[in-house]
Each structure stands twice: as structure tokens, then as C-alpha cells.
Amino acid sequence: MIEIEHCQEDVKKLLERPIVLVGMMGVGKTTVGRLLASRLGWAFYDTDDEIVRLVGKSISDIFSEDGEPAFRELERTTIKHLLSQGPCIISCGGGGFTVPETTQAIKERSLALWMDAPIHLLVDRTKSGDRPLLKHGNPEDVLQNLLDRRRVYYAQAHVHVLDDGLTPDEMANRVLLQIREYLYDRASDQEKESFVPDAMCMTVTVTDRSYPIFIGSGLIKQPELWLAHELQGRDAFIITDYNVRERITDSFVKTLKPLMKSVSMMELAPGEQTKSFERYQAVLEWMIDNGVKRDSVVFAVGGGVIGDLAGFAAATIMRGVDFIQVPTTLLSQVDSSVGGKAAINSKSAKNIVGTFYQPRTVVIDLDTLMTLPRREWLSGYAEIVKYGLIGDEAFFEWLGENGALMLDGNLSQTMRAIETGCHKKAEIVAKDEKEKSGERALLNFGHTFAHALEANAGYDGTLLHGEAVSIGMVLAARLSQRLGYLAQDDVDKIYNHLHFLGLKTEIRDVEFKTPVTVNDLISAMKKDKKTDVHGLKFVVLKRIGVADLESSVDEALVASILEGSM
Length: 566
Ligand SMILES: NC(=O)c1ccc[n+]([C@@H]2O[C@H](COP(=O)([O-])OP(=O)(O)OC[C@H]3O[C@@H](n4cnc5c(N)ncnc54)[C@H](O)[C@@H]3O)[C@@H](O)[C@H]2O)c1
Description:
globular, single chain, Rossmann fold, 16 strands, seven-stranded mixed sheet, 49% helix, 566 residues
């Protein structure tokens, strides 16, 4: 179970400088700041209050009598003074962090934390109170304009925490979790040993909003820790499969019920075949029969199959309802639950019908992995290796040392690997949410081969997605080598790593029910979404940790690589 007290201890132990809360007016910097100060046993300062005390007049009066530049100068000197006070909490006025000299001082001498919230919450929270900048015009437009201009500064804060409708206590918990995660990332190996690895929270930023990912042990038993306040009290529609239902979902329903108006559950058959038009229709009709409304919340509790199908249903029912991912396989925790791709399969092509639809929250409870069969662990591991190969050589090396431990169920290594994977995916999704610039397409490393293998294996459990990805990555590494990019040593390293841990690495490792030919695989590749007017397209490696897209790949070359593996 998550002990928020552990976070407090870790933060107190490791942070020897002030925490400065920055962000828009109305986000709750003062309220949450006071709570944080009292929990950490530190002093609390509000820069506006300090200025009022110093000059003996209200902020409004300073603005109207002396002008904004005079106020900003007072703010700058006040913050400079407060930054020399040692560990404390400082709530910085909304514009303070937008004055370059002040921004620089805060960044250098404190931990700057951006408290962020959607505009509609800020409007609600600024209705009462003396806010000089909101005196003219429509508050929503004024706040939006301010945020549009300030975001570039706020984004320079060390930590970004999203309030998606939390109470101050809940927000204080989230802030502590994220600060601890930030500190953990930067701690020495020796310091890391003293951390209690039980939970963390990171933020995914997409075009029009952000959402949190929670990673930890015991999260499903404590939905009050992560379920945004504004989603509580609504109708919940839980979609799961029957393997997961008895192991996880039944008890989740019990803990969720007190927080929701109603909780309905639909149980589907496990396996890739569930991502079909028929099951999609069945889910929609079940929701309609059970009174789904615009404010209902869909929860996907299960692996990538359930996540993809439930996400697509949530995206399309009533033109989109709120959706929460509770992934329960390693693969879904590290990959499919993050980034908003939701899709179903046609008879001949995977994920061919779908959309981009971001979840409101992702909840990764490591305890769910305890019942996951080893074959599924290995399948998920392939997607983890992919992150190292396409963008982080050091992570690939780390997996070389820690992969076996992780696959033996070591939670500490698993948490680090999932966290790194989610970070990498979040970074890529933030740059290219809808796979337009090519950045996100790099996540498809190994997938052109993999999808062709899966389509020929028949989606019936003969070949799991991650198993196909593992073989696909080996083939894509060989293709990269044959194109003159990747050294043979690196191809061997990739093969050996996967093979040593027991993953499938060759097409001949798959027991197809009917024999498969090179032509069968090539024609499946041509139906894949990744194929375009330029013909076969692949993600290739320039070296381990550096990937690129390669269009118009010679079919004969692909055929010879396939042949060599059959
Ligand atoms: N949306 C994306 O970005 C994305 C990315 C990668 C993969 N995917 C999709 O994800 C799917 C594969 O996901 P998956 O590997 O999670 O498969 P899955 O959903 O089929 O789950 C694998 C098996 O594990 C069982 N299971 C799940 N959680 C369990 C638990 N905690 N204990 C015991 N058994 C458990 C399931 O019932 C199932 O039998 C594919 O359809 C793939 O296309 C999507």
C-alpha cells in the first residue's frame, strides 16, 4: 500500500532547498502550499502576502498606484530574499515566474513546481477574490490568454503537476509523489537504496491537455488516491476480461463503488479476437442498455486488448466519454495504456479501425502483475527493450544487467523499467501525438514484421503481440544492417539479449497452424497501416539508441530477410 508518509520522509531527507510553487492564479498554490509546509514541518511563504506586509498596501493598490513593473520589481527582491531561507515552501504569484531574472533565480536555487489545472477549474476558483488582472474582460478568455503566454515559462519548472479536479489534500499527495519521483531520478545509487519504491506519478502532455500516470503498488485498492474528484459520483462502466475479472476486477469494483454513483461491469473473452467489430458493437450496446450518459466514465481493466477496445468504445460512444486505463499486463502498462491509440482489428489487418483518444488517467498497479503468466511477462518485455533500441542506449545496457531480475518478478527493477518506458512513450507522444511528424512512428520498430506474423498466426494465442515484436525487432535489426546502417555486432547484441532471456527471435520459433510463406508475410505487410504510396516502410536502427524511418524498402531484400528466419 502507498504510504504518503514515505514520500514526505524522502522529500525531507533529500531536498535541502525551498520548493517554489508556480502557476496560474486560482490553481491553489497558497492552499496546497500551506498543506505541504505543515506536512513537511517547513515554513510557508506567500510572495504576495510578503509584499503586502513589506509595503503596507494591497496588491490591487500597488498595481493601480505604482503599476505592474513596480510590483514585479518588489516581487523579484522578495523572492530573492525568500530563496535564501533554506527548505521552505514558497507560493509565487502567477506572473512572478515570467520575469526572466526571477525565473532564473528560482530555477537555480529551489525546486520549481508548476501547479497546472484546466481553465474551467481556474475560472471557478477565481470567482471570488481580489484579482487585478481579472477585473477587465471575460475571466475565461483572460485566463486562457495569460496561460498561453506564460506556459513557456511555467514549462521550465523542474516538476509539472496536474490538478484535474482534486481536493487540496489530494493535490498535496500528488505533488509529494511527483517531487519524490523527480528526486529519485536524480539520486545517486546509494541514495536510491533508501527510497521506498511504492508509488509515483508523472504527467503526459498532449496537444490540448495533460493527464497523470500513476505507477505503484496497491493503487487499485486505493482509488481515492488517484481518481480525480470531478470524476467521482458518476456512473462507471468497467470493461474487463474473464481472466482479469476474478483476479483483479471483482475487488476493484468493491473499492470503486463507494466513490461512484453506480458501477457496471462487462466481462469479455480474453485474447486478440476480442478486438473485433462484433465485440465492439456488444460493448456499445451494453453501455446504451445500462444508461450511459455524457458524463459516464469508462474504465478499462485488463491488458492491451481490453484497453484498445474499451478506449475505442469510450471514444465513440456519445462522441466520447471520460476514460481511465487500468492496465494489468506488463505490455499494457509499459506501452498500450499510454498515448491514446485505440483500435480494433479487421479479419486481415490489425488495429486498422481506430482513433487517437487520450485517457483521463492511467493507473499502473504493479501488484496486478503477480498473477501474470511468464509468457505474458516476456511478451511485455519486448516492448520495453524497444524503448532502449529506438532511443536510449544506456537503458538497453541497463536491461542487459537487470532484465533477468525483472523477469523473475523483482518489483523494484520492474517499477524502474515501467517508469522509464512510460517516460519515453510520454515524451514521444508529447512531440507527435497523432503520428504526423514521424517521431511517434519510431515506436513501431519491429512492428511491420510483427503485424504480418500476427495476421498469419491468426490472433488466436499462437503468437502473442510482444512475441511477434521480439522477432520483428531482430528482423528489423538485420534489415538495418543490410541497408548499411547497423553494425553486425549490434545486431548480435540485440539477438543475444532477447534470446538469452527466452524470447522468440526467429520466424521458425512460431508454430503456425498452416505453413506460412514469404509471400504470405509480404502481402500482409502491404495491408499494414504503415505502408503508403512509397511502398514498404520500416523503422530502422542507425545504431542502438538511434532510429529512423525508411520508405520504399526493396521487397526482395525484405523477402530474403524473412527467408533467413523461416
Ligand atoms: N494502443 C497501443 O498503443 C498499443 C500498443 C501496443 C500493443 N497494443 C495492443 O495490445 C494488445 C496486446 O496486449 P496484451 O499483451 O496486454 O494482451 P491481452 O490484453 O490479450 O492480455 C494477455 C493475456 O493476459 C491475461 N491477463 C491480463 N492481465 C492479467 C493479470 N494481471 N494476471 C493474469 N492474466 C492476465 C489476459 O486475460 C490475456 O489472456 C494487442 O492487441 C496490441 O495490438 C496496443
